[in-house]
Amino acid sequence: MSSLLPFSRTPQRLVPDSPVSHRRQAAVAVTGALLLSLAGAVSVAQPAAAAAPPLKGAGTCANIDMIYQPASAFPDTSRGRFDFMMQTSKIELAVLCLVNAERTTMRSLTRPIGFKGTLTLGTAAARHAADAVALRWWGKVTPGKNCRSMQGDPTTCDPHINPETGSTPLSRAQAVGYGRRCTSFAVAENAYVGWGSASVTPRAAVTWWMNSKPHRDNILNPAFTVMYAKTALGSADPAAGSITPAVTYVQMFGRCS
């Protein structure tokens, strides 16, 4: 790829996971300088078979067992509509708390809020989660399904590449302006979808991420300084069928220097 400015080619692994039970997870990390990127090789990783140890923040973080509810579960009032909209913020804060509890020996992550229309990586994560639920391309490659298979695993769709727009974690970050004012920057993305009450909570998502090396590497990467975790009601994987509740998570990390 051509460039007007030199940049350090720090290799990163893009590691989507193969499915486990009714939970799907994927992780990806890319680095770049200004508007440039370098993507590493894709490989498949199975989460460890043994159960993950208890999350360090399980006893102190709020809302970690929160289940995202549809609008119909709230009164059709101003307060009801507000409470419905606030769910994603509560879930994001729960994920952030759980993640920072694991980062005991390194700097805590923050989620800066955009002001006066400023977009953040949270916007990119929210858009990707919404698109994933609308298009439902995650999971296994099947006849007629519109998705791009993962390199190294032609049987599994790549959850990080939108099959209609071709967007990637890096291009989604660039679309909201991330990296524009950085000499160098990096972004990473973890994805998760679960269905059934026990599998849709922040605790469930972070537990699986922490029990899978590529996801855990993103979470425990000391270089990252910001993190957003957005959710969308519904499953990005059609394998969920009509099971409810179903929730799709997209977690984005960033570093700007």
UniProtKB/TrEMBL annotation:
Residues 1-11 have a biased composition (Polar residues). Pfam families: CAP. Residues 165-226 form the SCP domain. Gene3D superfamilies: CAP (3.40.33.10). InterPro entries: CAP_dom, CAP_sf. Residues 1-20, 146-169 are annotated as: Disordered. This is CAP domain-containing protein. It comes from Microtetraspora fusca.
